[in-house]
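3.2 Worked example (two chains)
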Amino acid sequence: MDNFEIKFVKYLNQVGFKRLDSFLGLVNSIRFLAFFWLVLTIVAVITHPVITNSFLVAVLIVCALHFGITEGLIKHFLTRFFPKRKRPYVTYPEIITPIGKKFSDASFPSSHMATTMAMLVVIVSFYPSLLLLSIGMIILMAFSRLHNGMHYPSDVAVGILLGYAYGWVALEVARMLF
């Protein structure tokens, strides 16, 4: 493991205080994320019914790509042939304290980052005025995944790249269909 990545995660893991840790634990909750994406999708559909079909198709494609590639292919299928990368808090329990839910699947790549980036690529393409808010959400999610001891910087970076690719593919397919 790259010494820089360990030092970086250790540093971010020690930053903060109880309220920040509680907030970031909530942000990383799968239930919170599912609720957040559902609410954003419902608001988008209600406020702009003209784009409903193409928006929903793009969101469904993002979900299919994420669960098929990140969760299915990379995290579950390929780990049968290659060793899965253990999360920082598992590999270095003496220096990294887990915050929030202790995820135990493979650390690489960050699923939270992949879904966050993919959904925000789609949302910003339909609602460009949400760009700054989306960048803030990406930074918050990246920080929280590192701070909480769940990922290394390279896990987060690859999650961002995968998410961008999923969002781009979803938008291209939606454009071809509509």
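3.2.1 Second chain
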Amino acid sequence: MHLLPLTWLLTGAILVLTAALLRYHPPRNINWLYGYRTPRSMRSREAWDFAQQQSARLMGRSGAMLFLAGAASLFLPPFGIWTELLIALGGVFWALFRPILRIEKMLKEREEKEKKKKEEGKEELIK
């Protein structure tokens, strides 16, 4: 049995379905049960809404790429079981953690811009 395509096809499909759920039924309120939940995304309503939108987009993209890679890997000859396992897990970790790292970076940049605007506003008030 080919472990690599099975793992990537299944994980990719799950990510695409989860992204569709988040896109069409996003969590309305900040909560600890459903949605993209990190301390940074839960600091404000604006950050929460932005994180939900971006997570649906990026998770769907990662899932689709992993699914396509799984379909393409069907045509590869089988590797050893441990090699396939390592490659499969590497792809899954990439698909899961790439969106998180990108969203956290975007949230941090948004926070820094907001802080900068507030500081500039305070400076103008002082003048």
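3.3 Remarks
The mean pLDDT is 92.
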